[in-house]
Write a structure and sequence with these properties.
It contains 3 helices and no strands. The protein is an all-alpha fold and 67 residues long. The protein is globular. Bound molecules: iron/sulfur cluster. Iron/sulfur cluster (SF4) binds next to α2 and α3.
C-alpha cells in the first residue's frame, strides 16, 4: 500500500516543477511501507506544521541544485 498522502502531498508539485526527481516518490511514496519513515508523513500524522519544500528524509530542497 502506498502512502495515503500520495496524491495530495506537496512533493508532487515539486516533481512537476522539476525541483526533485522521481527517486523520492519511488523510494518512499510508492513503497510498500517505507513511507512510514518519511518525516513529512510522521509530522502530518502528529499535526505538526512542516514546510512544503521538506523532503521525506527531513532535508530541504536546494533550489540551486536540482535533486
Ligand atoms: S513525501 Fe512522505 S508524506 Fe508525502 S506522499 Fe511521500 S511518503 Fe507520503
Amino acid at each position: 500500500m502506498t502512502c495515503k498522502w500520495i496524491n495530495a502531498c506537496p512533493m508532487r508539485d515539486l516533481e512537476s516543477k522539476g525541483a526533485v526527481n522521481d527517486a523520492w516518490r519511488i523510494d518512499y511514496c510508492e513503497s510498500v511501507g517505507i513511507w512510514k519513515n518519511c518525516i513529512r508523513y510522521q509530522m502530518e500524522e502528529r499535526f505538526l506544521p512542516h514546510s512544503d519544500d521538506m523532503l521525506p528524509d527531513g532535508s530541504f530542497v536546494d533550489f540551486s541544485r536540482r535533486t
